[in-house]
TrEMBL record, chains A, B:
<feature type="transmembrane region" description="Helical">
    <location>
        <begin position="205"/>
        <end position="226"/>
    </location>
</feature>
<dbReference type="GO" id="GO:0016020">
    <property type="term" value="C:membrane"/>
</dbReference>
<feature type="transmembrane region" description="Helical">
    <location>
        <begin position="106"/>
        <end position="128"/>
    </location>
</feature>
<keyword id="KW-0812">Transmembrane</keyword>
<protein>
    <submittedName>
        <fullName>Sodium/hydrogen exchanger</fullName>
    </submittedName>
</protein>
<dbReference type="GO" id="GO:0015297">
    <property type="term" value="F:antiporter activity"/>
</dbReference>
<feature type="transmembrane region" description="Helical">
    <location>
        <begin position="238"/>
        <end position="259"/>
    </location>
</feature>
<feature type="transmembrane region" description="Helical">
    <location>
        <begin position="325"/>
        <end position="344"/>
    </location>
</feature>
<dbReference type="InterPro" id="IPR038770">
    <property type="entry name" value="Na+/solute_symporter_sf"/>
</dbReference>
<feature type="transmembrane region" description="Helical">
    <location>
        <begin position="38"/>
        <end position="57"/>
    </location>
</feature>
<dbReference type="Pfam" id="PF00999">
    <property type="entry name" value="Na_H_Exchanger"/>
</dbReference>
<feature type="transmembrane region" description="Helical">
    <location>
        <begin position="387"/>
        <end position="409"/>
    </location>
</feature>
<feature type="domain" description="Cation/H+ exchanger transmembrane">
    <location>
        <begin position="25"/>
        <end position="409"/>
    </location>
</feature>
<feature type="transmembrane region" description="Helical">
    <location>
        <begin position="77"/>
        <end position="94"/>
    </location>
</feature>
<dbReference type="InterPro" id="IPR016152">
    <property type="entry name" value="PTrfase/Anion_transptr"/>
</dbReference>
<dbReference type="GO" id="GO:1902600">
    <property type="term" value="P:proton transmembrane transport"/>
</dbReference>
<dbReference type="InterPro" id="IPR006153">
    <property type="entry name" value="Cation/H_exchanger_TM"/>
</dbReference>
């Protein structure tokens, strides 16, 4: 540890801790605002990097994130490993068998949403290179190829997340979009690998164009034929004869690192090896769900935030912000991709509204566009201004996707149980001990908490008419009450705990210690049914009841609900 | 990514992949030989480092693992983060509430097994410093303090694993040993932190002895009082308001990185911060089992092997091997710790045999001794020869612990279901379709496979007498047969799959497609009961039956058994 002694180690750990903390906090804020978390993670880097901290307190920035020396190498290496593992997990999540689920429609969308933006991007860059502030030593042909790729890429993870949010993932629409996005990912990244090979060779760094491109295509071919079969064959040996799941996790990571080293060595980039190996591994039905889950959770919660935050450290997003360029790139990207996606959907005989929605879905570029821009920036084929424009385009298109699909398709959002709980709707100690008293006590609270949104007298009227309150069940210690209410647009659940217990009648010996009152929109009985079913499922478990009774605050109660295994497995 | 461009990145990824692959393969081999996996992981570094690869192919070694430059910094940084996370997980696993489970006995063992080796180690180093080939600029007092610590440390993780292996973990003996080891860990590392603070100050690197020591003690005090309470308070907020479990995992890692940065900065070492923070987090009942599991699995299966392998890269274990020194250190370490542990146990009124076994248990030094040696090596207070001696002592004492306890206490090892399956005992297609035919077919195979160990006629006699074969159950598609057999010392399970199905009689419409024949030692009916219970539990699940029927080889079948969730949760 010569190069990195003591003080450096302390600073490195502090830098990693601070970067991860900022990325997690801002990522969570973005998520709560229903935005992609990569937005918050990038912002963390922008805050701690040259843009903000570097301007306000340059010494602090240089102390934490020096541009040169052993610490810079160390941070770079960690960011490099992080992006490698992130792409491996992204590859794992690509389920190739999905491409064929809607037959030709998905494929048509996939082809059109690559071909049209690719052609348009190439034409713009070739015809109007002066817009892009091209470094003088960059070949216009290569730059045009790069911009063509940049216009045509989609981000599968963002698309999947948006579809899940909108409850469209399992619809016909969702299946078409996902299969198109998988096709887009696969073909787009293969073309990009080839283009990167060309770029390096033209820059005089590579091993000859033909060699690089054939090695790249040979690697991809190998991974998807022999490699895929070998992995499928080897996984049971790993599971049967090594410590599980540690052995399986190690196996996947080793393969990704070696694949990444190979693609980096042949002159494309490490991420391709990791991504294609991830796809090959994820394709094996032998890969166990638990290993996949651990890889996914750890990488997404530690390595991806670190990587995306580290991008913000590289560029000053204010001085390198060029409004006109941002506008051009953003508009061009949206138009190409909307036309491409919609044309593909029309070609697959989808309706007009749906075709437009397909266009907006495919337009989400998220993390993939950012990584693509970063690679081009590192090779010196784009300016920092264009990189900033690509990052902003990536984020804006990802943010637009959800709201636009919502607007066009107006799908029924699925109410989530966890969203139905509210701070004031948790009563740690009920005073009433009869069912009628409890209903009065609970609805009074609802009136206070939702006062603005909900007229209290409506609720109290509802509560006073016992025929409107259905007693769903009293099982073990739990009493479930449900009522349809006017004037609310989403369900609410009031939760009460009772030490003395609540009885159905004076005579009843069975008393409930946990009481839920579910209030759902009167015109949507399905929601009420969903809520009753989910709560019943969660509270089948005696441990869950015991833990609920120990909850001392709303936060502890909500933490319990959100982390309970049953609830999670359903997601 | 200036400092680490392309070719360097490829080499770094290759180096990490190769190191992790070697560490996992050798670690698994060690585990199969019932040795601590850290032994194999260290050997991986020895193979790829100066000892073997550096001697046979110095260019390859310098290419993969250069001693200087940006790649060396990068590898060092990754190893540094790895050991930080490893110590965090080690801290998580320390369950402080255990210390009090056996009242004073564990505490007495803990005190004696630190105090006696500490005194002896100090006396040896102070009285005979010439043995240890002391660097001339090292203060004899500090060296004596270091050796005192080195003699008195135990390794909780190794001890827990050995006790689990011997089925002693939940026995009174196990509880005493674990609580003593926890006390040892806690107190030993606090003293070591203080000693390291002293060392740095004497070397002129620190902030003044009083300041360093008070900061170190202040940090520990803070972590275990206010810090512990704060963490306990904050965890429900993290669970309730961030994406779960990613938010919780990130929270724990951020705290560990920041704690590590602080302890490194005050002049002790990063690992202390991570270890104590890990203990404080692990102490909160709010920490969810799933987050703990993901942290544990990912860190143990990726970061720990990388770290331990990287240790092998640092020293040439052949040229720096000094037989006499190894012998002295090993004997001194064993004697001190055996006397200390046994004396403590006697003081706690344990029997003589048990007291001796306690001594051997506490003597396991594992990873902790190696880390301690590494820190001293990096500070230049011990020679490479003494480091090699400490590593060898750590490994030998860990390897001895299990066999010696086995010899002294002779506990009944619990038969594990997965060990009862054998390559030849899996019949993917049964020919017979009656229960009698199946028993004949299966026992014939047993005769072939275990021929050497088991006289075939014994088995065939058993099989011919149907009254000795109990039909445990035929539930769904599964038929469980069990028989007590002479002349075997462990249970075996023969597994057969049948497409046509096996009926209990000609008339029977219910046919079994999965058949298990459990052969267990006749004189141990408890084992048979355990096996029947475990198989029944596993095969309650229809998915498990379906997957079993799809298994095409013994390996696929064993992989299924070992990775099935129910089986795992029991561990």
């Amino acid at each position: 540890m010569d190069a990195l002694h003591q003080h450096n180690t302390a600073i490195l750990l502090l830098a990693l801790g601070a970067l991860l903390a900022a990325a997690k906090i801002l990522g969570e804020l973005a998520r709560r605002l229903r935005q992609p978390s990569v937005l918050g993670e990038l912002l963390a880097g922008v805050l701690l990097g040259p843009t903000v901290l570097g301007t306000l307190a340059p010494e602090a920035n240089a102390f934490l994130f020096p541009q040169e020396g052993p610490m810079a190498s160390a941070l770079d290496a960690i960011a490099g490993v992080a992006v490698t593992l992130f792409l491996m997990v992204a590859g794992l999540e690509v389920d190739l068998s999905n491409v064929w689920r809607k037959g030709w429609v998905g494929l048509k969308v996939g082809v059109a949403s690559i071909a049209i933006p690719f052609g348009a991007g190439f034409a713009i860059a070739w015809g109007l290179p002066q817009i892009f502030d091209l470094p003088s030593d960059v070949s216009p042909l290569l730059f045009a190829l790069f911009l063509a790729i940049a216009m045509s890429i989609s981000a599968l993870p963002v698309i999947v997340k948006t579809l899940l949010d909108l409850n469209l993932y399992r619809s016909d629409f969702g299946v078409v979009v996902v299969s198109a996005a998988i096709f887009n990912d696969l073909v787009g990244w293969i073309i990009f690998a080839v283009v990167l090979g060309l770029i390096d060779n033209v820059a005089g760094m590579g091993n000859g164009i033909t060699l690089t491109v054939s090695l790249a295509l040979g690697f991809i071919l190998f991974v998807f034929t022999i490699g895929r079969k070998l992995i499928h064959r080897l996984l049971p040996y790993v599971q049967a004869y090594t410590w599980w799941p540690g052995g399986e996790i190690g196996f996947v990571i080793i393969l990704s690192l070696l694949g990444a080293a190979f693609t980096e060595w042949i002159g494309i980039h490490a991420i391709f090896g990791a991504f294609f190996i991830g796809m090959a591994v994820g394709d094996s039905p032998h890969l166990r769900r638990r290993s996949r889950y651990i890889l996914d959770q750890f990488v997404s919660s530690v390595f991806s935030p670190l990587f995306f935050a580290s991008i913000g450290l590289k560029v000053n997003f204010i001085t390198r912000f060029d409004g006109v360029l941002v506008l051009i790139v953003f508009v061009a990207a949206c138009v190409c991709k909307l036309v491409g996606g919609a044309a593909g959907a029309k070609w697959g005989r989808m309706g007009s509204r749906e075709s437009l929605a397909v266009g907006f879905a495919m337009n989400s570029r998220g993390a993939m566009e950012i990584i693509l821009g970063l690679l081009a920036l590192e090779r010196g084929i784009i300016s920092q201004e264009l990189f900033v424009a690509l990052v902003i385009t990536a984020i804006l298109t990802s943010m637009m996707g959800g709201p636009m699909m919502q607007l066009i398709l107006q799908p029924a959002r699925k109410a989530r149980l966890e969203d139905a709980f509210r701070f004031g709707l948790f009563l740690p100690e009920l005073r009433a001990d009869s069912i009628k008293g409890v209903i009065e006590e609970m609805t009074a609270v609802v009136g206070q908490v939702l006062g603005g949104r909900l007229e209290p007298y409506v609720v109290s009227r509802v509560s006073c008419a016992p025929e409107d309150v259905a007693c769903a069940a009293i099982v073990n210690d739990v009493l479930l009450l449900a009522a349809g209410v006017d004037h609310i647009s989403q369900p609410y659940v009031v939760t009460g705990l009772s030490t003395q217990g609540v009885g159905l009648s004076f005579m009843d010996t069975q008393r409930a210690h946990v009481v839920f009152l579910i209030l759902s929109p009167k015109n949507d009985p399905a929601i009420r049914g969903d809520m009753v079913a989910e709560l019943s499922l969660l509270y089948r478990d005696q441990a869950m009841i015991d833990q609920t009774l120990q909850a001392r605050s709303f936060t502890e109660f909500l933490a319990l609900i959100r982390t309970s295994t049953v609830y999670l497995q359903k997601e």
